[in-house]
Amino acid sequence: MEARTGDGTAHRVRAAEAPPDHVRAAARDRRDGSAAASGPPAADGRAAPAGIAASGSDGNGDSRVDGDGTARRHRIASAALSGAHVGNHRHGGGGPPRGVTDSRTTACAEEAVPAAGGNGGGGQDDDSSGSGTGVGLSRRRLGGRLLALGGVLLLHGALPGAAGAAGNPAERRALQGLRLRYGSARQAGLLERHLEQVAEEARRFLDPSPLHPYYAGAVVLAGRGRTIALHRAMGCAVRYEDYDGRTDLAREFPAAQRIAMAEDTVFDLASLTKLFTSLLAVQQMERGRLELEAPVDRYLPEFTGGGKELITVRQLLTHTSGLRSWAPFYKEPDRAGQLRLLWSVRPQEPPGSVYRYSDLNLITLQLLLERITGHTLDLLLHDEITGPLGMHRTRYNPPLSWRRVTAATEVQRPPWSGLDRGLVWGRVHDENAHALGGVAGHAGIFGTAWDLAVLARTLLDGGIHAGKRILRPASVELLFTDFNTAFPGDDHGLGFELYQHWYMGAMATPHSAGHTGFTGTSLVLDPSTDSFLVLLGNSVHPVRTWRAGSAPRVAVGNRFARAVPVRTRHGGAAWFSGMEPGASGTLTLPPLTPATAEARLRCAVWWDTVPGEGAFHLEASADGTVWEPLPFSTVRTTGGSPEQWPQGRADGWSGRIWHRLEAPLTAWAGRPVHLRFRHAATGRHVGRGVYVDVVRVAERARLLFSEDRPTDASTVRAVGWTRSAD
Question: Which sequence spans correspond to the domains of the chain?
């Protein structure tokens, strides 16, 4: 992995202690979508009995009850680590998620579970305009509360508290109805035929790819504005009861005992937990209790020595602390040992000099939050996020009664796992989160697709949902702002990853935010289209070595991006390059002979390609065989200064805005010239593609070519390009 030091020079990151295989696998997934390897090293201490891990205990001797809360003993794992106050749980009861039934037992091998048909608490959207957009989040609305210093945005002064209803009664009344609801593709402003392909792509990965299915089952949810237009479940939530590492064979439950995936199945969200921890930190910044650029040891004096005293809160949130990826907390015999292990960790590189994704960043942030608030992380989650937003199916340590509506994860045994727990079902999969009592800053939260959609909608609406505000708009901007400009390719807001094609697919833009979880979960938000996508799969069921990278995430992301239409200004069709990985195509005009040096090619163009893996070219040739770049300029149709493309190529993201393109043909005066547009997608990832419209070639008042003339339009030679109205 390449990194950059403070002076901009590149150096190679070398870990002083190799992270476990599951962390290395996650890093590979982040880079190239390759298959994951095995898990953490085998535990060298006591091993739990083999077989199915019981879900009636949190693994630390603390009992859990079914739903009435009568015999529950409070978990003390987080408080023991941080010294935070231990209070009563206020999760509002421990019963199963709302709307679930017990009719889930099925063979569920390759069958898709039909849509439930309920409204999920939202009702039907009566907006038939097709816009599908909500308030949305202005990408430029940073306001006076943010200060730009050296390319990094800092909170400027304390902001008022965030949680709870909007302060203005009129605002509350206006925003009460702004909540998620089910609706049609048209109501969401989406293309139905392409939206259906999102579910088809997700279902395709129930088949071996190539040796094993990517997941036993999945739930996919897609929406735009406040309309959820797709919510499907497929495959099995629980399929395998055991796994043999010697033969790489899994033993399935009898057909009658398998449990089908349902739309409201609860998943171990794994590293999506990091998003919630980050949101809680930003809330504390609003309240003046936490400063973004402050050293961590201001709040955790024990977090010092060996260079740790230089690590800032921002560096924890953006994975630029220099800390190693992981540490084996599950090997420590008690909480005191876990705490000593964290305090003993030293940065492997100077803080701020390297990007390295690290669980330790978020575990440290957890301890910091618990110290400054006096509350455990699970209480903060409920009181500050899930409670106000009505996310009743999102929590740490779900109770026993949720087990049958929860997707199973892994059969954990050495050597692929650091613990011997048997089938993990209803308890956290991550070994370290398990050792920390199920409540950790990096992993441990369970939730549903619907609840994640509520969170996505809240952030896209600037921090408010159904009249309940958890963050102010200026704070939400910090989640979508790249703080890692020194580390190209590792774009990162506060807690949220940005512009990552390796799992976002064509939904990736410089402002698209999201995260993945090792168990097979992912969330993507695209403010530029006001859309969101949730894919939850149990891809470590029965074992993590069956994972096959992020191919399903990319596939459904590509299809969903295609479901968001691109409209021409005149409402008709334009030339579209397509968006297949590795594909290329040309759009060639008939030979023309400009009489003067004043000839110009002009057209409208819209593009979105993956930098370094795809580009849009404009080329010229004297004979139609040997081609050379034709320099051009573009300017947004909304105004602005022209941008020059002297190499005759453009790539990246054009802002989902049509541009006017102009190319002088000065060098071709008095001689024939062939002109063509070329799109080349050379890598495994693609953007939304390229559109070309209203092509004209003229000199003074003489029109040499115009697509508006049917005879001219019929002479265009298209290879790999098609006419598309969306």
Answer: 2-348+358-563, 574-724
